[in-house]
Amino acid sequence: MISAYLSAYHTHVLILIFIYIILVVSLNLALGYTGLLNLGHVAFFGIGAYTSALLALEGLTYLAAMIAAGLFASVFGYLLVIATDRLKGDYLAMATLGFSFVVYSLLLNLGEITRGAMGIPGIPKPSILGITFLTNDEYLVFVFLICLISVFIMYRIVNSPFGKLLEATRDNAVCLRVLGKNTLSLKYKAMMISAFFAGISGSLYAHYITFIDPTSFYISELILVLTIVIVGGLASIKGSIVATTVIIYLPELLRLLEMPSSVMGPARQAIYALILIAILMIRPRGLFGKVDLE
């Protein structure tokens, strides 16, 4: 049993790490590989979580609910690209950030569907082929397998000819259009793939925590995910994986510092921030970054 080697707390942290790896790598696919400065990624995370939770509570099987969560999130990814096609840089960032606030507002105010600020309790644990993942040890194995499959698929995508076109869209979309390529089509395909896997991670999160509310998908989550992408490095799947592990585990390692309880909280946050700043000063492109954020 995994519990013989890991404490319950560390099992919990590992589950969150695997969920966030999917979320972060999917954001890097749009931001790092395609150059889409998308600050609405946390909205896809929330859409996937709510879609999967609501469908599962209506009796749909978990596998179908998870796939539906990814597909529903990808539809919103397509619509977001269509709506922001003429925007670039800071303007695109502000528009996609506005999308996050709109989704948050809808989750908060559509009480008849989402239960608003009260959230959705009692989300069932995943059950596939008669196997229900009730314990954290079982869920850790399950989420690890989904993470492995998801990251492998995204790795193959970015290293395929299609992935090279995404990088060309990021580097020089005008030249790519001169060569006869439809850059709008490439952008919405990249955003839909990115949103799909964000929806998958949202489904995994909802069925693990078994309770979600709109605050789970607010700007604080966006800041965390964007920080991980930048620290790991743009256009680097390896960087996203390493940075997710480091940034989620780092605050827990800082608990080992012997400090009075009255100063431990503020000191941990300050040390955490200083370490992140130091990483970016030493490695301006992040740990394994290949391009700069423009």
- The CATH topology annotation reads as ABC transporter involved in vitamin B12 uptake, BtuC
Q: Encode the helix/strand succession as letters.
A: HHHHHEEHHHHHH
Structural class: mainly alpha
What coarse outline follows from CA principal-axis ratios? globular
Mean pLDDT: 88
Query: What percent of the residues sit in helical stretches (DSSP H or I)?
Result: over 70%
Tell me the Rg in angstroms: 19 Å
Report low-confidence residues grouped into runs of 5 or more: none
Calculate the terminal CA-CA distance, rounded to whole Å: 47 Å
Strands side by side in the biggest sheet: 1-2
How many helices does DSSP assign? 11
The biggest sheet amounts to: 2 strands, antiparallel
Beta-strand content: under 5%
CATH architecture: Orthogonal Bundle
Q: Please identify the top-level CATH class.
A: Mainly Alpha
Please tell me the total number of domains. 1
| Counted beta strands | 2
How would you portray this structure in words?
- By secondary structure, the chain is mainly alpha-helical.
- It has a single domain, classed as ABC transporter involved in vitamin B12 uptake, BtuC (Orthogonal Bundle).
- The chain has eleven helices and two strands; from the N terminus they run H-H-H-H-H-E-E-H-H-H-H-H-H.
- The protein has helices at 8-33, 41-57, 62-83, 89-109, 111-114, 136-158, 161-178, 183-209, 219-232, 237-253, 261-282, and strands spanning 127-128, 131-132.
- The protein has a two-stranded antiparallel ribbon.
- A hairpin with a 2-residue loop joins strand 1 and strand 2.
- The N and C termini lie far apart (47 Å).
